[in-house]
Amino acid sequence: MEIKVKIKKLSERARIPEYQTPGAAAVDLCALLDQPVILPPGSTALIPTGISIDCGASVTALIFPRSGLASKRGIALANCVGVIDSDYRGEVKVALTNHGKEDFTVCDGDRIAQMGFFPVLRADFIEQSDLDETERGEGGFGHTGVGN
């Protein structure tokens, strides 16, 4: 399925996100920096992308870490998943955290995260005194164990 996403470059240097392969589920977001940002281990920095988007009503853009940066360098998102609401028109920024053991340098143009688009379902909450019973019940937080 394809949707139309309006995009505004906030700088001439900003890069329009691109899918890297025909089967990619998300586009790469690139850093827009005047100078490199060094992330020491344990630190977090908010990295601008130089773009803002309008993905339409009932759609959200979700920002995820890039798997290679996470698995090889320990670079992830501070909030695990970034949520760009359909009515947000500010700059898309990425909060990167260095969980690695070495400094990580983010340079202008680096692909720092990925962004996918998803439909939004809004809940109409109906207060109840009881909920339907299930076999699982209140079991959670590892109640099924870790083995086979």
Description:
- With 148 residues, the protein is mostly beta strands.
- It has one domain (6-119): Deoxyuridine triphosphatase (dUTPase) (Deoxyuridine 5'-Triphosphate Nucleotidohydrolase, Chain A), CATH 2.70.40.
- 5% of the residues lie in helices and 34% in strands.
- The protein is built from one helix and eleven strands; from the N terminus they run E-E-E-E-E-E-H-E-E-E-E-E.
- The chain has one helix at 67-73, and strands at 6-9, 27-30, 37-39, 44-48, 51-54, 59-65, 75-77, 82-84, 93-98, 104-106, 111-119.
- The strands form four sheets. A four-stranded antiparallel β-sheet has the order 2-11-6-8. A three-stranded antiparallel β-sheet has the order 4-9-7.
- The longest helix is centred in the middle third of the chain and has 7 residues, at 67-73.
- The two termini are 37 Å apart.
- The model has no long low-confidence stretch (mean pLDDT 95).
CATH superfamily: Deoxyuridine triphosphatase (dUTPase)
Determine the oligomeric state from the structure. single chain
If you consult CATH, what is the topology? Deoxyuridine 5'-Triphosphate Nucleotidohydrolase, Chain A
> CA-to-CA gap between the ends?
37 Å
